[in-house]
Amino acid sequence: MIESMGRWFREKVKGSSYAFNFFLFLLKETIHFPWTKKVGFNVLIMQIYFTGVEALSVIALISLGIGAVIIIQGVALLPMFGQSDLMYTILILVITRELGPMLTAFIITARSGSAITTELGNMVISHEMEAYMSVGIHPVSYLGVPRLYGVILAMLFLNIYFNLFGLLGSYLVASLIHDIPFRDYLIHLVNALTPADILSAFLKSIIFGFIIAVVSIYYGFNVSRAVTEVPQKTIKSIGTSITLCIIADAILVIVTRL
Fold first, then answer.
1. Contact 211/244 with Cβ under 8 angstroms?
2. What does the alpha-carbon distance between residue 82 and residue 97 come to, in Å, rounded to a whole number?
3. How much is the pTM?
4. Which has the closest alpha carbon to 150: 186, 184, 119, 189?
5. What's the CA dihedral at 46, 109, 144, 49 to 10 degrees?
6. What is the DSSP string of 215-249?
7. Is 160 helix (H, G, I), strand (E, B) or coil?
8. What is the pLDDT of residues 20-67, one digit of tens each?
């Protein structure tokens, strides 16, 4: 039993050490990427297109639904307690500060994070990484770093898109049920929005995008030799990304509310 525990402990230390070194190398290559001679630029464009543009319809549908539900419920319930003006504060708090970044991160994790891990894992299995190495191109620099930038930029863009649809687009849905003047709605919404809300959403987009990209890339390159490892690593990638995003969100909420 002691021998098994010792073997388990050594494997954990070895795995943690590998993950830490991989992270440091990826971070170093990420810092150098803007000064490289357009290496991986096509990969970056394709990643932004897949992660950002192709997810627009999903983001629009979810943000519209959530925004409309909050407005409809707020208009129906808050006047009963004499707190009608709180509706706009709740909209900003829920959509801009919390649900916008978090739901966008979940969607990107499910769509793009899983795709990155699967694609890189299959490339490892088919020995494409060795082909890159043989011509002097490091796979992490060429395949991993552009994806990291692409996911972060797409996350920022999609979060703004989520807020626009959630805060403004949902008004169109709610106005079908309740008579809310758009001018009043817009003025109250702008008054409720503070620089701290914008900064919080901006920070969360960058941090969540970074977490999702690093975790997905790591698990993709972590595939060893068997095809059966790919779905296992993909599931771990999704679970780890969501867990780390929730932890990061909790930490950011505590820090920004202190």
1. yes
2. 24
3. 0.87
4. 119
5. 10
6. HHHHHHHT--S-TTHHHHHHHHHHHHHHHHHHHHH
7. helix
8. 888 898 888 888 888 776 667 888 899 899 988 988 988 988 888 888
